[in-house]
Write a structure and sequence with these properties.
This protein is mainly α. The protein has a three-stranded antiparallel β-sheet. Strands 3-4 form a two-stranded antiparallel sheet. The protein is globular, with a radius of gyration of 23 Å. Bound molecules: benzoyl coenzyme A. The site of benzoyl coenzyme A has 26 residues, from helix 2, helix 5 and helix 9.
């Protein structure tokens, strides 16, 4: 079904034929806009931003580009097309028809999964609210706003499911998604990473590299769900998500490139001299990678999880790209897990969070290989690495243990004394903050980051991607 833009809420779910649902969502819409006004990008409501807007759910040519004021962005409800005859691809009901409605016995678990997913979307917009003031270029500013409006749309995606399939509880949850706020002492966002401040662009690139990649993995596993409307929603969200990770990967790549240029100019790799020249030394970048990677690793939940086992067995949440596996039931398999108490044989169903975390870490390596190649080509020995999945954990069996980024257990005092060798110290953050001087002349870049290889949608890098009012 094509997207109907004549409607107050653009959609491809034939909203006009369900008056009750349409009214309920039209009632929620002004609350969303109020939230955007108060918690979305501050002070840029009048700017014209070169944004893409979804025009169909086809993977090819699905968006059109043009100058839009963000509050006028057409947030809507877009589900990937239904696959006729789709059956459940994993768990104890494997092979049965997928569900078009929520089975009563899975209602609260599905609602929890959808609310948790939905909560991250506005949370990220809140975290990034002030970044526009410190942008390194108009190109980057536009990318930030593109991500922000799409995270807003992902909130719509989850709110649609809550309204359409969960009755009054769903409507209440949809309201609460606008009432919790990132970092709020009384009503924080649900998952830890989404309460961390993002007050500089280095953090933004790390967040979009690591945390949006968790989004990719979680959305892929929900796209396998037996609850078909959830699967279809997540499939289209993944199309939008790719750009967010692109911003992270190229953003960090451009920081590395610029640092290497400065190292060459100065003929040194001494951090103090690189900093004095206004660039990010590689050990400092490593600390930011350690911080955001370890925080994002928590987003997979505990290594041993009865929630994960039940969600899989019941067909609610699969593994990313479930079809690549041979065994889709996993009743007779175990996995050896390293725990602080030693190696343990755990039923595979209970270890699925860890399985997903491991494949996520492999995916995270791809960018590192690329950045390290650039460092190697420039003739330096330094290599960026990912921290061990035991480092700085707030969830699961390694929670709170004094483990270094290589995974080695240390005496507590040594760990505390050395922590800022591995994650940014207050001084590191102050320095990075000092680099964040806003650059808004078309084509110009801040001194700590190289220009991108190309612009957006075949436009030149010096195109005026944001016209500030
Ligand atoms: N922080 O058995 P456990 C994205 C809770 S990112 C706080 O260990 P489970 C995006 C857990 O809720 C993707 N609490 O784990 C990216 C549970 O609480 P209850 C977001 C946590 O349930 C960038 C308890 O601990 N999507 O889209 O197997 C920008 C025990 O749970 C955390 C999803 O997460 C944590 N880190 O798995 C914008 C998908 N971890 O229920 C967007 C939906 C666990 O006992 N969510 N807990 O009170 C899920 O699939 C699961 O809820 C989780 C946790 C994977 C998060």
């Amino acid at each position: 079904m094509s997207i109907d833009y004549a409607e107050k809420i653009p959609n491809n779910v034939d909203l006009a034929h369900d008056r009750t649902l349409q009214r309920a969502l039209e009632h929620w819409q002004p609350h969303f806009l109020e939230w955007w006004h108060e918690m979305g990008p501050s002070d840029f409501e009048k700017a014209d931003v070169y944004l893409r807007t979804a025009t169909s759910v086809d993977a090819k040519g699905w968006a059109s580009y043009g100058a839009v004021k963000m509050p006028d962005y057409r947030w809507g409800i877009f589900l990937a097309d239904q696959q006729p005859g789709r059956t459940i691809g994993f768990g104890d009901q494997m092979g049965q028809a997928v569900w078009q409605q929520v089975p009563g016995e899975h209602r609260s678990t599905l609602r929890r999964l959808i609310v948790t997913q939905g909560d991250t979307e506005p949370a990220s917009v809140e975290q990034q609210r002030l970044l526009g003031h410190l942008c390194p270029s108009l190109y980057d500013l536009r990318n930030l706003f593109q991500i922000n409006v799409e995270e807003g749309r992902h909130l719509w995606a989850m709110v649609y499911l809550l309204h359409a399939y969960f009755g009054r509880d769903g409507r209440e949850e949809a309201e609460e998604l606008l009432e919790r706020h990132s970092g709020d002492a009384d009503k924080p966002r649900i998952l830890t990473t989404f309460n961390e401040p993002i007050s500089d662009w280095l953090s933004l690139y790390c967040f979009t590299y690591f945390t949006d990649r968790d989004g990719k993995y979680q959305l892929k596993s929900l796209a396998e769900s037996a609850f078909d409307p959830l699967s279809r929603t997540c499939r289209f969200m993944l199309t939008e998500e790719a750009h967010h990770m692109f911003v992270g990967e190229t953003g960090i790549g451009r920081v590395v490139k610029r640092t290497l240029e400065v190292m060459k100019e100065l003929g040194t790799d001494e951090p103090a001299k690189i900093r004095a020249r206004g660039a990010v030394d590689l050990p400092l970048l490593q600390k930011y990678l350690n911080f955001w990677c370890s925080s994002s690793l928590d987003l997979f939940g505990s290594e041993i999880s009865s929630n994960a086992a039940a969600s899989f067995a019941n067909g609610l949440k699969g593994r990313p790209d479930e079809a690549q596996y041979e065994d889709h039931v996993l009743r007779d398999v175990t996995l050896k897990l390293d725990t602080p108490e030693g190696e343990q044989d755990v039923p595979m169903l209970n270890a699925l969070n860890e399985v997903m975390r491991e494949s996520y870490l492999k995916d995270c390596e791809i960018g590192l290989k690329r950045w390290n190649r650039a460092i190697e080509r420039a003739g330096h020995d330094f290599r960026l690495t990912l921290p061990s999945s035991r480092f700085r954990r707030s969830i699961g069996s390694w929670v709170g243990l004094p483990v270094d980024p290589r995974g080695k257990l240390l005496p507590k005092e040594e760990y505390l004394r050395r922590l800022h060798e591995w994650v940014p110290s207050p001084e590191d953050r102050t320095f990075v903050r000092s680099l964040m001087q806003r650059v808004i002349e078309p084509g110009k870049m801040a001194g700590w980051i190289a220009p991108p290889d190309r612009g957006i949608n075949n436009l030149p890098v010096d195109y005026e991607y944001v016209h500030l009012a």
